[in-house]
């Protein structure tokens, strides 16, 4: 008579924030058979004490109340924190939070800061040493990912290169309409949509693109076994609105910034080998001379030049919303579904190159 199969206890998870990504992370944790939601952190007094299910828009209680008490959540001794708090406007404060979790012995998957996907040549060595030492001491791991930066420009393109005989260039693109993307701070203050082209928001200052997306280019290079010239090459083309445009995040008067195309180029001996490219519009008809998606709302595209020539396009759309809603869902789910693998990984920084195949195991509905 065979021994009974071992029953695994669900991993205890804390959701850190309930914003545009965090609310979907809560729903994903609740739906995952190997995870149990035990705590929720919020930043506002208005959300404190509310049930996680209501904050996630599930229209039912989950029996977990949101709190601003960090110490109370850490006292729960969770197996992992799913961290989706806004990081773009508080990069180093957020890094301090994430490193602190690892130092306390708690695994973390996070949507940002995205530079932590592959922080070499971005963060100073002493910071990387601090994280490595903490992981070695506590056994806890940190993994930062999402859709872009994330799956669309790490696992997806590297998997496609497994079909190559010769690779001349790998280009990863986001071609998207941001008119329904609700992130007012990102849209106006970081990108500069709706501002005069004479203004230079933070993202377009020299070196910032390399900090924000350099992790993508260098991780792809590492996966391909090549060493890039430094620094990376930044190319930015900002275009004005030809009419007044209204988006869910910001109004864009005629003549102010309405579209941007940027490239971050990794070269080897001066030859482009790895390129990250974004064409971001706020109305589908804008800039017809730029690369366009096959669907009006947008896509992620991988273009591999070599032998053979390959092109792969990834699109997504929410069941009850548009592509920007589903963009938040896929970001959340890439993190949620990676939790078991990250918990099982050795301590310290865990990159996409370190993880085994992450799937939607357990999510097929009966």
UniProtKB/TrEMBL annotation:
Signal peptide: none
Domain (2,4-diaminopentanoate dehydrogenase C-terminal): residue spans on this chain: 153-358
Protein keywords: Kinase, Transferase
Pfam families per UniProt: DAP_DH_C
Coiled-coil boundaries: none
GO molecular function: kinase activity
Residues passing through the membrane, by range: none
SUPFAM superfamilies with a match to the protein in the record: NAD(P)-binding Rossmann-fold domains
Protein name per the record: Diacylglycerol kinase
Species this protein is from: Nocardioides taihuensis
